[in-house]
Amino acid sequence: MNLEPHIDRVADRLCEVLAAEERLYVEFRALLQRERECMVALQSERLEELVREKATLAEEGRLLEETRVAVSQELAGLLGLDPAGITLSRICDHLRGGAPALRAAHTRLVALLGAVRELLDANRVFAGDATLQVRGALRVLGRMLPIDATLPGLPGGVGRTPRPRTGRLVRESA
């Protein structure tokens, strides 16, 4: 029985999955760039929207990855390869003609994943640095407020200092 037509159909399906992953990661990269812009501009409402969008894209990415793994394993089985731990490079090595379209899609996806990873890391570092700066500012502000500060009109009478009520938020945040 000639498996070549079936192998070609499964290889084409794998190319389609890789193309869908590529589109998803292009969208994810653009979202991460918008996220960075929102962090710089301190647009918290827009950041919340982007977080929801990221969660949706992450779920789509997880589903596409599961599909890619399943199709890759199916193709590996058709090629007589062990499906466990199979790589796209190894599949390409065993396909007729070296599967240039599949190799190209794989190469683009790897490069795109690297760019997305860099943006994720850069945004994480930027958010971490911003958080440290805010905490530092809160600490400085907290030190500027007297611990026994009182508010006029509070019960306690003359000469008695009521429990500190000023700077609580600052002290707890620092």
**Architecture (CATH level 2) name:** Up-down Bundle
Distance between the termini: 72 Å
Strand percentage = under 5%
Count structural domains.
1
Global geometry: elongated
Helix proportion of residues, in percent? over 70%
Please tell me the overall pLDDT.
83
Which class in CATH terms?
Mainly Alpha
Structural class: mainly alpha
Please provide a written account of the structure.
- Helix content is 75%, strand content 0%.
- The protein has 174 residues and is mainly alpha-helical.
- It has one domain (4-151, 160-173): Up-down Bundle (Methane Monooxygenase Hydroxylase, Chain G, domain 1).
- Helix 1 (4-41) runs antiparallel to helix 2 (44-78) and helix 1 (4-41) runs parallel beside helix 4.
- Mean pLDDT is 83; it is low at 157-161.
Brief description of this entry?
This protein is mainly α and 174 residues long.
Give the topology, please.
Layout: H1 4-41, H2 44-78, H3 88-94, H4 100-144, H5 168-173
Helix pairs in contact: 1-2, 1-4
List keywords for this structure.
single chain; 174 residues; mainly alpha; Methane Monooxygenase Hydroxylase, Chain G, domain 1; 0% strand; elongated
